[in-house]
């Protein structure tokens, strides 16, 4: 750009990442404005670039309209394109021709974040391309990752369940400060409300259930490794409050998916096959899914064929399964990497490669159990090239990766000088699951 680029930042991930990104933009000569919606956003921000918004959702459309007219941003950046405040803002950006980029948790995790123009998941520009066109997509350079070393001190901090102390600490501080400063942002309604007492109660319940599974997980994994647990399908459950599930799940949720899968499995799957449910490691309410699975397995008479697991590695589970099922979890990509068919109930970034469905989802599901092992899966190299166009190496919840991640963002946006000198090209094979989990 011939002049100083103007960057508008809306709400970011919990923690200091957006503040660090703002400082990097300013250091690169950009003019920054960041909208602050609540006390948590304010706590994790700094400098005069902040604009406090306190009028609630009803006044937001008018505010963002006036702000974009006055500031005239070249680029707007946000985290989570399905958050209500962001959906309204995106409407404004589209009307005025303002370029906007969206962050999300990485399609492949850990070690990657998603950063795309226009939208993520079912809203991604990549998904709009035809299946044949995807085979011709230009391969995007694979960025190396500072957190990819299994001996890294940062990986030692990472719990086997995927929740780091840094993440938990920032979540607690964010919501605590949000509550303390509510009087200054009285009209703000968060897209995912969580009371502190409820959070702590669910966290300790989740911790207890994780410990319970910790005793069971190694035995299940050993059975798989030694061939004693074979001919099984795996269901990859999600965080029920996730906005991508709510927006693109097509009405499906953990509860009705669990019930329909178990009912269909009991009627249509070969009696020699088993069904393995993997609870989502970040779902603090996964005890509800666990209790429901147990109750339904008993009701449908398949309790001896249904297993629930929480901590085992996706790599081991997916490498040895017949096929996988999910609503629209990004973990479905791991199934495709291991050449396993994946049945998706909702819309996702990768559903062009998933099991083909008609309008009769349950009818398709009934056939899936017997046909999934026979249908060829798209070559992983094609899928990898497709997905890597959306990813940057790094982690919102690992500060040691910030410098490299921010360099990659600036490079992708074409901001600053010589940032590409710090971006290694064509590095190691894509890390699709944390090998030390």
The fourth-level CATH homologous superfamily of the domain at 218-383 is: Glycogen Phosphorylase B
Q: Quaternary state, please?
A: single chain
* Largest sheet: spatial strand order: 3-2-1-4-5-6-12
CATH architecture verdict of the domain at 218-383: 3-Layer(aba) Sandwich
Number of contiguous helices? 16
Alpha-beta classification:
alpha/beta
Question: What value does the average pLDDT take?
Answer: 82
Strand content: 5-15%
Distance between the termini: 43 Å
Name of the CATH first level of the domain at 218-383: Alpha Beta
Shape call: globular
How much helix, percentage-wise, in residues? 40-55%
Q: Biggest β-sheet: count, sense, barrel? A: 7 strands, mixed
- Ranges where pLDDT stays below 50 over 5 or more residues in a row are 138-161, 418-437
Order of SSEs: EHEHEHEHEEHHHHEHHEHEHEHEHHEH
Query: What radius of gyration results from the CA coordinates?
Result: 22 Å
Query: What fold name goes in the CATH topology slot of the domain at 218-383?
Result: Rossmann fold
What is the count of β-strands?
12
């Amino acid at each position: 750009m011939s002049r100083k680029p103007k960057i508008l930042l809306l709400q970011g991930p919990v923690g200091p990442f957006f503040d660090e990104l703002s400082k990097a933009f300013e250091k690169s000569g950009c003019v920054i404005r960041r909208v602050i919606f609540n006390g948590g956003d304010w706590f994790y921000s700094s400098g005069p670039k902040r604009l406090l918004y306190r009028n609630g959702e009803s006044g937001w459309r008018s505010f963002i309209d006036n702000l974009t007219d006055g500031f005239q941003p070249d680029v707007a950046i946000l985290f989570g394109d399905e958050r209500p405040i962001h959906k309204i803002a995106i409407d404004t950006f589209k009307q005025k021709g303002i370029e906007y980029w969206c962050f999300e948790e990485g399609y492949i995790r850990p070690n990657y974040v998603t950063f795309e123009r226009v939208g993520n998941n079912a809203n991604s520009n990549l998904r709009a391309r035809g299946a044949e066109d995807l085979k011709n997509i230009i391969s995007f350079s694979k960025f190396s990752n500072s957190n990819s070393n299994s001996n890294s001190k940062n990986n030692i901090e990472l719990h086997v369940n995927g929740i780091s102390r840094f993440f938990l600490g920032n979540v607690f501080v964010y919501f605590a400060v949000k509550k303390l400063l509510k009087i200054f942002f009285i009209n703000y309604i968060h897209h995912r409300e969580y009371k502190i007492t409820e959070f702590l109660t669910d966290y300790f319940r989740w911790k207890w259930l994780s410990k319970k599974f910790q005793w069971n997980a190694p035995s299940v994994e050993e059975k798989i490794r030694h061939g004693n647990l074979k001919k099984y399908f795996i269901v990859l459950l999600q965080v029920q409050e996730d906005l991508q599930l709510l927006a693109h799940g097509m009405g499906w949720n953990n509860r009705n998916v669990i019930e329909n899968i178990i009912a269909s499995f009991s009627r249509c799957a070969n009696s020699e096959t088993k069904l393995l449910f993997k609870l989502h490691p970040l779902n603090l309410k996964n005890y509800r899914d666990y209790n429901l699975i147990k109750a339904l397995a008993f009701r449908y008479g398949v309790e001896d064929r249904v297993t629930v697991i929480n901590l085992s590695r996706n790599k081991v589970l997916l490498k040895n399964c017949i096929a996988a099922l999910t609503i629209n979890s990004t973990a479905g990509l791991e199934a495709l990497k291991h050449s396993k068919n994946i049945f998706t109930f909702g819309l996702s970034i990768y559903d062009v490669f998933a099991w083909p469905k008609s309008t009769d989802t349950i009818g398709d599901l009934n056939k899936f159990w017997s046909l999934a092992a026979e249908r060829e899966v798209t070559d992983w190299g094609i899928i990898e090239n497709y997905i890597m166009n959306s990813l940057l190496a790094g982690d919102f919840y690992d500060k040691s990766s910030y410098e490299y991640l921010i360099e990659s963002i600036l490079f992708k946006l074409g901001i600053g000088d010589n940032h590409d000198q710090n971006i290694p090209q064509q590095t190691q094979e894509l890390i699709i699951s944390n090998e030390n989990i």
